[in-house]
Each structure stands twice: as C-alpha cells, then as structure tokens.
Amino acid sequence: xxxxxxxxxxxxxxxxxxxxxxxxxxxxxxxxxxxxxxxxxxxxxxxxxxxxxxxxxxxxxxxxxxxxxxxxxxxxxxxxxxxxxxxxxxxxxxxxxxxxxxxxxxxxxxxxxxxxxxxxxxxxxxxxxxxxxxxxxxxxxxxxxxxxxxxxxxxxxxxxxxxxxxxxxxxxxxxxxxxxxxxxxxxxxxxxxxxxxxxxxxxxxxx
Length: 207
Fold this sequence. Notes:
CATH topology: Arginase, Chain A
CATH class: Alpha Beta
Oligomer: single chain
Strand order of the largest sheet: 4-1-5
Shape: globular
Number of helices: 8
CATH architecture: 3-Layer(aba) Sandwich
Helix content: 25-40%
Distance between the termini: 20 Å
Number of strands: 8
Radius of gyration: 17 Å
Number of domains: 1
C-alpha cells in the first residue's frame, strides 16, 4: 500500500507560520528517505487573501477531506502532517467519520468549547468539534462531515482535563479508566472490536 503524505501547513488559518511551518520542515529534512520509500507527497493550500481563523481553517479542512477520501478510495494510506489538531475534522470527513474510531494520542485533550476556553484557540477545540460537541453546522458545510461518536474516541490524556470539561470527556471511550489514569489499558477493547468488521468501527484514525 502506497503512503500518501498530505501536508497541511496552517496554524489558526494562516499558512506557513508558527506550527504551520512544521510539515514543510519535516518533509524537507526527510525528502530523500520519503522518495526512496515511494511516498507520494502533496501540499494543501487555499487562496484566501484575508485569512480567518475559523473560515480559512474549515476551507482547508474541506480540501483535506477530499484528498483523504481520494487516497482511501485508491487503497492508499493517508498520512497527515498538519500545523494544527483541528485537521482531525478534515481527516475524519475523508474517512467516513461515522464508521471510524479515533485514537487521540495528544498531550492536550482539545475538548474545550467556546463556553469553556480561556484562550479562544480553535485548535484547543479539535476533539470537541470532531465529536459534534460544537461547530457541527460549520463542519458539515465545509467538509461533509458527520460527527464521530464519543464512545468511539479513546483519549487517555482526558484524565488530565479540568473539571469543567471532565464531565464531557468522561463520555468518551467507556473502556478507559480515566479516573485511575491508566492509559496503558484504554484502547485494547476498541482496537479489538475495530479488527472484527461489524463488531466495531471500520477503521481507526490515530492523532
């Protein structure tokens, strides 16, 4: 199976700044190895003259969803290098989010909402958006996104969330022992059911 490496060089709707520099830097540093391995590389860009954090971000997510869907339909493995966690929404849209489980390996739970955030940072709301907790209409408008069920999301770092979000995060994967903070056991059942077709999700998206 060929790997399709998709660069999403955006941070807060702005291209090639801050974390948006990361994808290009990683590709440049490993270009020879990637080519030798037969990895196909592409880069997503939008032509917004006046970028908006939410508006431009969701335009980028729409483009990402189309590239991911194309890769999946052609038996390619989509590998996303992005400058922001909100890219998960575009990835899930391309993979048929309703049939995909999410493995959220992130130092941040990203389960903020506009009501709980203290920074207003859209990236801090990524998993909340992916599960339909917020911005559902905007997600559907730009990327034909259907939300991923919370019980299909495993997020061990959610045990580190503040109390204002812990009650929401507690509705995620029921196999995890968030209270005891034992992430080593959090996803065994999810991955087991994912491998059995109708017994579980059709695939797994790792973040």
